[in-house]
Amino acid sequence: MSKSTDRRDFIKLCGKTAAAVAVAKAAGSTLMAPAFALENAPRVRLVKKDGSPLKAKELPLYANWIFHYPYHSSPVLLIKLDDPAPATEVEDKDGKAYKWPGGVGPEKNIVAYAAICAHALSYDSKETAFLNYRRKRNQMTGHGRVITCCAHASVYDPAAGAKVLAGPAKFPLASVLLEHKADTDELFAVGLMGSELYGEFFKAYRKELRKAFGRGKYKKMVEGDVVAMPVAEYSEDAIEC
Ligand code: FES
User: Fold this and answer.
1) Which end of the chain is more exposed for a tag (fewer CB within 10 A), N or C?
2) Where are the domains of the chain?
């Protein structure tokens, strides 16, 4: 699939996300309709390795978990922060403002971002996790409670739409929209907003993504249930910096 095809698919998927937003609103979920969104992504339920639903209350505080969305090969960091993360305005790579809807869950402190760095596309793989959330201050920049890409020390604020706090990145990580179902405490990934880098990501890492996820699968959208797990379990080397 070419880069233009990727984009077409992504845009096509936008319709589905718009529908997901409408469904979520109708169901009284915590998902807010964004001012601007990359729509039409699939709606998937987050589950644990045993296939049972991942409940918001089961996600540990300061969690640094990973799942893949919207593609089988595109990693996402799932984090439970100390405090509620209110909606805020951020800017994409073209300087266009969009409203990040904030955290979800009973405490409004669960957030998710693409684990593909906005600087030079370093990402979290089974071998190495370059992007990680750490509560303690990191040695490279002195920032705490942040996502750091240890490749070149870009620092993102997970409590504010992944705004860039330091380092060479010029725009936030893409945000993965989550939905929390209050009646079951389940979590769903339902869309994306921000800056789309998947065409460049597939181009840069085609060979290793094919090897890791399968030639016919790495560019396919996920569906149904998607497994989430601690980064430290997923990756052999979750880098601390
Ligand atoms: S690739 Fe992440 S800081 Fe350079």
Assistant:
1) N
2) 3-236
Q: What does the pLDDT average to over 82-106? A: 94
State residue 39's pLDDT score: 58
Q: Is the pLDDT of residue 151 over 90?
A: yes
Question: What residues does ligand 1 touch, defined as CB less than 6 Å away?
Answer: 117, 119-120, 122, 149, 151-152, 154, 167-169
Q: pTM, whole model, 2 decimals?
A: 0.85
The answer to whether 235 and 77 have CB atoms below 8 angstroms apart is no
Do residues 43 and 20 lie in contact, with contact meaning Cβ atoms separated by under 8 Å?
yes
Q: Whose CA is nearest to atom 4 of ligand 1?
A: 152
Rounded Cα gap, residues 176 and 51, in angstroms: 21
The beta strand positions in the chain, using DSSP E, are: 44-47, 65-68, 75-80, 88-91, 97-100, 110-114, 128-129, 131-134, 146-149, 154-157, 163-166, 175-181, 186-193, 225-227, 229-230, 237-238
The CA distance from 75 to 15, in Å, is 22
